[in-house]
Amino acid sequence: MKNIVYLIVMFLGLFSFAQENKAQLQALKKANNYVYEGNVLKEDDNFVSAEMAYRKAISEQPSTVTGTYNLGNSYYEKGNYDEALYRHLQAVEASTSKAEKHKVFHNIGNIFMKNEKYKEAVEAYKNALRNDPTDEETRYNLAVAKKKLKEQEDKQDKNKDDKDKEDKDNKDDKENEDKKENQDKDKEGDDKEDKKDKGDEEKKEDEKKDDEGKPKDEKKDKSDEEKKKEQQKPKPQPGQLSPQQIKSLLEAMNNQEQKVQEKMNAEKQKGVKIKTEKDW
User: Fold this and answer.
1) What DSSP letter does each residue of 41-72 carry, written as one string?
2) Exposure string for 239-274, b = 16+ CB within 10 A, e = fewer
3) What is the tens place of the pLDDT at every residue in 60-70?
4) How far is CA 70 from the centre of its chain?
5) pTM to 2 decimals?
């Protein structure tokens, strides 16, 4: 009895496995048919219908590499590189053989080259060669990617140097402007100080002058000089006439003598009366 039950269970398992395999085979067959349909539509440049066929293939068999890979190639040919990269990354995950991985990585490298992401392209081509070192086309593409990467890095370095030089020049110009501005301020301050000093000097000069505009010191000096001369003049001693008094007295005497002389001359002209003296 136990043997019969065991046989029934084993039979059901085999039947279920067979049914599952049959379903997978049917799904794979449908997926392949959709892929073939998509390839035909793609050759006829009917991209929209080809995309729909590839999507049906992926829906029937998500693990199919061919459908995802071909859909990615279709996007690539139409210039939709972002969607092409996304589909090829899906194909990498679904790939099980080195041949499949080589093809997918090679195309991923081509997508990066179109986007000018040369560093990523170099890594993609290297992965392709790891899975098929004999592919000369991939090796050639790798060399081109390395050359482009070197040119890109040199250009970036040059742009950086130019940017640094421009920043330095701008900084130097700013420093020169600030320096000139400070010099102008210092000069303006010096001019104000000079004007102040000049004003102070003029004020001092004005203070040295009297109301007539003559230097006070000169007037003072002149006064001192007159005082000195007066001190040098002989001063009259007590009981003596001063030179000025003597001069005045002489002039008075001369005037008096001149008057007497004039009177005498007048009497001579009239005649002089002679008085006779008496005899005793």
Assistant:
1) HHHTT-HHHHHHHHHHHHHH-TT-HHHHHHHH
2) eeeeeeeeeeeeeeeeeeeeeeeeeeeeeeeeeeee
3) 776 678 888 88
4) 52
5) 0.51
